[in-house]
## 1
Amino acid sequence: MIPEIGEYSLILALVLSVFLAFIPMVGAARGDVFLMSFARPLAKSLFLFLLISMICLGYAFATDDFSVRYVAGNSNSALPIYFKLSAIWGGHEGSLLLWVFILSGWIFAVAVKSDGLPMDMMARVLSVLGMVGVGFISFTLITSSPFERLLLNTPAEGADLNPLLQDIGLIIHPPLLYMGYVGFSVAFAFAIAALLSGKLDVAWSRWTRPWTNVSWAFLTIGITLGSWWAYYELGWGGWWFWDPVENASFMPWLMGTALVHSLAVTEKRGLFKSWTLLLAIFTFSLSLLGTFLVRSGVLTSVHSFAADPERGLYILVLLAITVGGSLLLYAIKAYDVKSESDFDLCSRETLLLVNNVLLVIMCSMVLIGTLYPLVVDAMDAGKISVGPPYFNALFVPFSLILVFFMGIGILLRWKKSSPQRMFKQLLPSLVLAVICGIAAAYIFNNEMAFKATLALVLSFWVIFSLLTDAYSKVSNKKDKLSSLSKLPKSYWAMQIAHLGVVVSLVGVALVATYSEERDIRMVPGDTVTLGDYKFEFKGAKALVGPNYKGDVGTIVVYKNQQFFAEMHPEKRLYLARGSMMTEADINAGVFADIFVALGEPLNDGAWAVRLQYKPFMRWVWFGGVLMMIAGLLTAFDRRYRIKKTLKTTFA
Amino acid sequence: MTPKRKKRLVLVLFVVFGAAIAVGLALFALNQNISLFFSPKQIMNGEAPVETRIRAGGMVVEGSVKRADNSLKTEFAITDYAEQVTVVFEGILPDLFREGQGIVAQGSLDKQGVFQAVEVLAKHDEKYMPPEVADALEKSGVSKTNEQSESSKDASTGAYQ
């Protein structure tokens, strides 16, 4: 009974989203206030019904209702309750339900928070979001309803959740990632509304910016968590694979980063308007492309996709409609949206343009590398794979160039900076950065690999620019510290976000250059030395868990002859599916991670063991956390709330 | 030309130039870094280049896995049920590596026709068959789904034993 209620709510949500897509839009076109006023109630009830749908599916999982095909395929009565609930998004159908649920959550948030918006803008934005809803709710219902029943031969036990996904990382990673992905639909809706009305003023960018920054923050933390999860759960200590699934979320992030910067120019200077609109369209299109890549099965094989094209084709059509429709609208209407002012070559605008161009190029590189094998395969020209060397060869130089320009851009003024002043400010920090960077690289490791040293120099370069800029903000004030604390939140967000980039850069550079790794056969009593660390294998013994059995090894680690840690990597056999899992043991530290994992048992009590020393590993993700904090912080900046307080004082 | 237009022209040129370099670099890097897939049959027919980074895949032949006593060196054979190729790998094999499982190996062929693998991939789902392997099997007349092929698979594995 409950699953049917879920299905009906989903159908009702589809009907509501169809109304939302049409009624307010027609109202906005005719200037009919009555029709436009439908937007908010429709948006809120859309959220309500999708919430009911989610709760019903959650209930089916919690009560082990294996008559529901999706529950039978992705759960098991032996699973702990939190894994049962997170199994809602453990498979294709539930992931899609989560996708549309989060979409409705964003729609709800826009409906609640849109008090200050002009009526027609609010109606158009919600209407466009409603259209996206129609596309994806119908997709869920028609091709992949999670509520489908297996009434005739109900299995007694579920097939279990994939053991890889039985992890805290899976509980939080997909919802956060989707919050980001789907959140860009709001920026997209604002862009389409601006094109439809032909109005793009400062107010528009002030409404759009917080939404975009918050989605960007969610996507940032989603990607960061994904990397962290892959690191400890896939078992072998890799943290970025340039896998198509990772690229699917990384492309919207790169484009979204460009959008965040371009929106800043649009808000502050009324420039780059049509470019901002284009970026908003591209960012959301890449989110849809990501959904297509991950959800259509096209990655497993282009041919299996062609054999069972229903799912993939549906998203492909949605993608084509979105990209085609919005670009057509852009072509017709973008001319109405004119930029208001001009800027000098030596100005922050130029540097932000450089940022945008570089980010778009980097995104295109990832796009080419991701789609190329699919295109070749689709044309039957052979099976190729594009590996990490391609991505590294292109991505690393471009990101270093990007960071170099970041150091300049932070210091330049809007509209016009004097080149002399720029050189005067930059020269000392350049010299200092080179000295500090080389010194740091030398202290860390006297090999001084070129790329790592360059990355450290550039990190100091950006840090000095950040410090110089903060100082120049208060240099003419009396009480410097207190005026520093009075700087707006968005300024601090800018500082924190760029600091986050530096932290990640340091982490990536050092861990990629100086990691040490040994795969080795060890019998109990064997020792291996890796850098300053000595590993002693004490043997492995049997282990029994709630839904698995396996072996647990003991490895004692000494650092500089002193006891450092005792580590217990595991090898598990999950009984329901009979699948083997490697549970690595990681000793995480601020400056280095020690990573041990068991391979397979060999003869005479020996094991294949992987030992890894990964310097500055945590920094990669900590930078992502800083960027997320910064993205969220901007949304709380005072100037985005002014509208509301003004209204309340007049009321 | 007004100064404003001139500036715009400079910007546009800058963008076009940058994009052209970027695309050029991308295509160059792409050509350097793709690795082609070859089935055992193609390798035995001499279609695969020697000492070039390629991928090879197939089912691990039953009873072919030999481990060294004092290192992680492993030798095994992969087959598409038409031909088989010997693979040598030193390192930790993936959790799902076992005899009869479909795998893809990354590495290069040496002059003796032995595949020196640097990486062995078996996906984390025992029902999953690497798409290249499935395709190669299909081409050599074995399909992974219907019953008929099951028997022909038995026949072919039998032939090797």
## 2
Amino acid sequence: MTLPNAIPNLTIVHSASEADQTQRVQAVQIDGFSAYYGKNCILSDVNMNLSDKGVTCLLGPSGAGKSTLLRWLNRINEETEQASCSGTVKVLGRDLWQGYSDVTQLRRSVGMVFQQPCVFPCSIYDNMLMGLRNLKFSKSETKQLIEESLKQAALWDEVSHRLESPATSLSLGQQQRLCIARALTLKPNILLLDEPTASIDPVSSRAIESLVVALGKDITIIMVTHNIAQTKRIADHVVFLCDGKIVEQGSRSHMFSRQSSEKTRTYITEEFCDC
Amino acid sequence: MFKGMNQRLLTEKIFALMARASLCVCVSVLLFLLGSIFARGIEAISLEFLFTPAKEFGKSGGIFYQLLGSLLIVLVAAILVSPIALGTALFRNAYCSNAKLTHVLDQCLYALNAIPSVTYGIFGLIFFVNLFNTGISWFVGSIILSIMILPTVTLSTYQAMACVPKIYHENAAALGLTQAQIIRRITLPQSFHGFVTGLLIGLSRAIGETAPIMFIATAFSGVQVPRSLVEPVSTLPTHILELAQQASDPQALRNAWGASLTLILLAGLFSGLALLMRSRLKSEGHR
Amino acid sequence: MSALVSPRSRQELRARDGVKIYCQLSAILSILIVGVILLTLVFQSGPVMFAENTGLFGTRWNPNEGVYGVIPMVFGSIFVMLIATLIAFPTGLMTAIYISETRSSKLRRLFKSTLEVLAGIPSIVYGLIGVAYLNRWVANIFDLQSGRVILTAGILLGIMILPTFLTLAEDAISAVPMRFRENAKSLGLYRHEVFGSAIFPQARNGIAGAGLLALGRALGETMAVMLVIGSLDRLPSPLFNPLSSGQTITSKLGREVGESAFGSIHFSALVFMSLILVVITITLTILSHYFLNRKHAHV
């Protein structure tokens, strides 16, 4: 099943040959990117390339600009007052601004889940339907998509018997997984997660972590976190940001054992950063 | 499937266009209203206009006695409403423990807010002018206006009282203060700004009202300063009403615009003071 | 010890009672006022209700013949209110959406404070504007002899209730937390879909409250309507012809209460209309507060 939002030659891949084709397109390419709130510079001259599927963690102390970076990747930050940016960003091989005729097309291929679980005050099913409703799927297709997504988010077993009950009746951890499932209904190529476990109890956090790892096998996941242990558990690729700059980036093994920067080392060992 | 997308985009475009168009309509109406009132009003207004009495049924001369009458009637209304509004708000805040009674009191205040202004006029005409046989009297006008602004003042005072942190009451009570002392030392000083703000907003509303006072408190011409409680006065709104009914006469129309601008400036003065009060107290609270 | 305490406490007791009694009296007075107003209206509309052959619910009003049909006025009120609603609600709602969805809080503040100024313009001044401009424009556009018609009153009233509706509707929309917008937008929804599926369901009660409150205002508005509606005590023909003169309850009251003799059937018929009006506006307002309070309970 193809989704209408899927960008030509970037459709969701099912066969190996197609997969090879899409591999050539880089998921995210950022060059000389700076972001501002009013006159305050939040990010300066960020360069970053993510070509692989898998889980990328944006790690750093609070105020480093991780969330800002993430929020620009699907242009949700445009809605924030006084936010502006400069530089080039390419998502899925296309320019973030010129490459997408309208922003909703971008946002359908780049899903996002926020720190605070946010379910709409309607039933679980209607929550799942939110992004699909206007895409003209048949009823059975819609149902199938919703079921698939809920299964992917490991929520199906818990909610399949009560899809019509209000989403607010779920626990916080379930709500967050519902948010992830909701984002997955659109079959995004990239999923942005903004500290998805920050406001959730440890047990649910673990459930979400294993979910993220599983999802990372199929799509690109970019996740903001300041939790070093968590990064160690789930990341394939780590980008360490501090004070609006990328200090170091590399694979997990590189970042945790062979880091080249002294700053990275102190942060990882002592959770302290003096920049 | 692509057709579906285009339809969505089209709806989006229409939606955005309608929102912009509505904003433009609102802004142009706003500019037109303020622009016409100010442009036409400033033509007519002058110190002489403000301080000379009306002549020839308002066609020439100024609005001196109308100005005085309006001020008199609303200021007395403010004096009349103050004790009742304060008492009612205090009762609701400090003494009313019965939820049902609070509900009834609230509904009564909402109902007072809902009663159309012309009905207040009719009530005043029946109850005071005829049953109490006062005749046309400016004081009855003040009473009616004070009833009209009672909900505004009471609700504003009450809201300010409800905002006083509970911990103040608890600490004061822990120091052994009685309820009356708590009211005097804590509740009143902490919520007085709400009372004044409500009063000013009520005044700015009352001064522009025509319908409640036109049957019971005002006469159109030949009125100067009243010497007793049961004499009529003339006011700005009723003056504008008379002049507006002779709108074909350019001279009358000109004076009507002058009186309108004066009225709006007076109302604006009251609501501006209320705004100032609110913002000043807010900043003090932050300190 | 007890000797030390008791004189003070007796004094305090008296003070406390004084304050308490004063507060209770004020509250009772507040409630009493509403009761007295309603009772006065009911008693004074008694004569016309019990008099015979007044045709109270007919379509003719003629004091000389002793016929007091209130239908033309009730119809006029509703008709004018409908026109005002058709103008104010869509415009107000779309503008409220625009303002609440804008990124600039400066624009928002500016607009809100200007609206407060607009809401503060006395109704008689709106009436003057109606007489001086609107009236003539309507006459010119529709080629009428006089612009004092139902349409003029409706437009003027629409302009008058616009600020009330707009501010309250905007408050309701802005009260929906930002995260719902962000989540809906992240699902690739267009702005109208974000509003329709994420914002509106949560702002619905607030918007309904705003609408009902504005309706109440529209029904009770006197001076401006009275000056531009043309004061014709007949049903328009054809019935929904906005270009004919008409009469609303309020304009009728404003015109005739001063002229009718106290205690007459004529006066009683006017009070009866006023009673109808009060019952409707109080119901609308209490309903609107119900909606507005429910909104707060939700958020």
## 3
Amino acid sequence: MKSILSEPQLAITIKRLAHQVLENHINLDNTVLIGIQPRGVYLSDQLVEEIKKQVPAHKIQYGKLDITFYRDDIRKELHVPNQTDILFSIEGKNVVLIDDVLYTGRTIRAALDALMDLGRPEKVELCVLIDRRFSRQFPIQPDYVGKSIDSIITQKVKVYWKQKDGKEEVMILE
Amino acid sequence: MGLTTKHLLGIKDLTKDDISLILQTAEQFKEVLQRPIKKVPSLRDVTIVNLFFENSTRTRISFELAEKRLSADTINFTSSGSSVSKGETLLDTVNNILSMKVDMVVLRHSASGAPHFLAKHIPAAIINAGDGINEHPTQALLDAFSIKEKTGGLEGRKIAIIGDIMHSRVAQSNIYLLNKMGAEITVCGPPTLIPKYIREALSVKVNYNLKETLEWCDVANVLRIQLERQNQVLFSSLREYNLVYGIKRRMLDDLKKDVVIMHPGPMNRGVEIDSDVADSHQSIILQQVENGVAVRMAVLYLLAGGSSSN
């Protein structure tokens, strides 16, 4: 077990991600932020809070996307769906997808399919807290990265969130 | 995670957790059905046959839509016009269909226990879409979903089931389900249409007085008189039935509260329910139909995923 981001580091990282997203989307009118259920939402909640602090005058369009019905492994293992909560159109919008860990890329593949069923976005970007490089199974790369790590398949990367796990930390479990 | 059962033969075999899981999953499918593209790719590698040996409008269309919304391939079979009239047995019919690589069977049959019999003899997952006077589990699930949506929950709700309880699989499935989820149930109807020992067997209250029942309940689920299953005279005339047990506007207006009115369909207007009740703001009959698709999607999704892994 090894800690990769402590609580204060995590807070700073999220702040930086918020700034980077804002840098590219200085006018938020045509941008929507979408967190991926279930665990990406803890990151997206905080990210959106940060962005609000920076540009309090802007109305931020923020939604949550559940990808359960789009998974490619439902025959192997049953997943219980979470809520999709997107109360705006994504037609022609710049979408920033937000998830906690990018690993094989399968979740993002599913998320892209799910997104396309909601409309035709102008552009889709990906923001992740942890990028596990070299373990991708699909050609998917993030646009905003909290921290890149090199890990092997047998290791597990776990992000703990206050609301859910009582502490805020990123760890590698052997 | 998943259901404790491989088939959906009846509510009787489900646990409380199973029912909660189905209702919770159905909520997410209901959201899918509000989208511009009302379809998800979850079951695109699954083939489902809808075997209907008995007439049906809502259930068959609802199942077919649910399957299509999940991207499954579907085949429809109705007994009229099939080789059943040439003397083929149920098991032979199903085995022949299964040899064409079908994964799930949705079955409606006039014989109680037909899906249970099939489940013993064939490898595919079976979903009971109504068997004789036994059970109609997806109807009970969609009724529960609709009650929950309208009143916020099931536990402690007072539900009246009114009409032909004796011949109703909807009533039986509803009673099993509502009992498991902690609702209170009263059945109401003419004594000839209520099984004698239902109080003891299914732990429900019985009240032969419609007015008292309506005063007691939060939700009234009104059932059709199943003339096709009655081979003796159990009440004198439909007109008399309407006068004593038909739900009337005036009766509801006299109550000090808004009772939610449900009906599984098909309705016989002017018999068990009057038009000005069926079409009123209190009625959620069409919402029940709408919710049926989401609930059936949930059942198909949960039975196709995980548990049937090979």
## 4
Amino acid sequence: MTLSDSTTGKRRRRHNTLVGWSFILPNFLGFAALTLLPVFGTLLLAFTDWNSYSTPEWIGFDNFRRMLDDGNFWTALKNTSWYAIGHIPLTLAAALGLAVLLNRKLRAVGVLRTAFFFPYITSLVAVAVVWNMLLSPELGPVNQFLKFVGIAHPPGWTTSTDWAMPALVITSVWRDMGYYMVLYLAGLQAIPGELYEAARVDGAGAWKRFWHVTLPGLRPTTFFVLVMLTVSSFKIFDLVQVMTEGGPGRSTLVLSQLIYRQGIAQGRFGYASAISLVLFLIVLAITLVQFQLQRRSER
Amino acid sequence: MRKTSARALTAAVAVTLLAAGCGGGDGGSATTADGRKVVKVALWNYDTTPEFKALIEGFEAENPKIDIQPVDILADDYADKVTTMLAGGDSTDVLTMKNVTDYARFATRGQLKSLDSEVEALDKASYSGLDPFELDGHYYAMPYRHDFWVLFYNKALIKPADADLAKLSWADYASLAKQTSTGGGTSKVYGTYLQTWRSVAQAIAAAQTGGDLLSGDYGFFKDQYELALDLQKSGAAMPFGTAKSQKVQYKTIFESGKVGMVPMGSWFASALLEDRAKGTTDIDWGVAPLPQIKGDGTKTTFGSPTAFAVNKKARNSPEAEQFVKWASGPKGAAAIAKVGVVPSYTGEEVMKAYFAVKGMPSDALAAQAMKPDSVKLEMPVSDKTSDINQILDEEHELVMSGEKSVEQGIEEMNKRVKSEVR
């Protein structure tokens, strides 16, 4: 290699790097201005008292101390966890079940797959309003049906403190399962057919094939789905806001809603930022644990 | 050659994206092409709220050099949207204050311009609803309409012979409602409809017993809650849960003729007038004074003035102030009285115009209803108002849906207001 060769090589490399940067630059600038900077801003604001007009006043850990005493925070944390505990496994199971069913050669399988995906692309407000009608305690078809099959006192759904959260979970599972089903379908198609043949030759029944071939083959997909579901469950806002507005009482108040109320509605941006920070740390911790478990199971 | 164009393309994309990111948000020009000053007014449901059109058209006719541009926001989202706009430094000139609670929030945050000198010039003898806008001796908004609650009734179901509607107590009202309820299933007719808002129980109790909604001591709610729950249980009023989950609208159910009486704000009259004119309903309705807790013959109700305020960041502040002043004065009052809206300024001429509106009930009962002895504020203003509002709303829902007994609900309200609000 001559000297001039290596300089051209260097120059080309630098040139390539620049071109590469210039391709991601527009996107990165947008991301930095609209996401990255506000995120760091939130981090700082969490330690201030700020109403969005005055100059933020540094108050150290006061916001966090206030949070410890705030009944609304604990209620919201509990509700958000309940929602996650219901939403994550049920969506996962429903999506996996659908994917396995629709991975076979059925007539009109394309139509069915599309039908299950539809809720995901439907406007969330429409979903919430329609489910509210379906679950209406007196006139809703769901309770009419339950009465028809002999349940004299069907649940009050969104009007009852005990049933409002299950109503939200049912609606959100129905809405999300189509999306995760598509991910699982892709995962299923990546499992080599020979494995199933081999299992069949060894005398494995349908259940054993599912347990020993399908599930292990889907592990990367399941991991991805699990992480996505965890993140989306903890930041649930829109569905709750439209369907129950956190009610009845505070029975479905979730953390994102509390952040919205404290920040946008009450103008306590410092306190709202502190709650956001805590929410972020919770999600981060859970995700890290998930990554750790995944790594261990791969070994 | 190809390289250059690729590079140029990348640069162009970057520049466009940046420009798109930075541009927008200046909200257009402060003057029109023909040199008129633009005053933007944040308001709600422009198409279905006739008083806005009446005010804007009346003002523009007198001030040809000013162009009023409505910024239309969905009524249900109005408070949230304006809060977000102001937090983002929006420069919409005039902001309609839908209620005093929101007003207090905007004003105490320093988002509104002081209107002290304009208020000074008002003819206070014929002007109502101004007091709640005073904050430490200053005014940041001027009311142009002043609604208060009355009892709307369907003349086909409630006959004046059944009861003396001018002197109803709440107990009379309840038995009249039970007497009027008939049928079941889809042909069910309810004696009364209670909107799901907490004011239906709480503000009535506060206004007529003298209770304080900010006190943290809510024993005075008890009777009104028991009344409402009894009406629900007896089938004379639609269950709270149904009304809430179906998002039933008082207007729709009253206009369908399936309910005898609806306690509601006087704003309901203009909607009814309009729908009758359009032919969407043929209901024959009347208004009576709100039923009373005390039997001493005085008529006490509650209400909430609606006001205009000038944004501190307004671009055409002097013109915006001119509009606000005009709207709350005699001319603005006359303009909205003609569309059946109760103005803040109630000179004799203005009220004559109000009752002369086509289709407006003008019998003696209506005249009595529109002249209450005292109008209490729906919710007192303080920096604690919105926190207390939230708590009272949440607990109201639990009591009305039967999740908590009246006693438990009131106890919880007392406890939460004392421990959570600071």
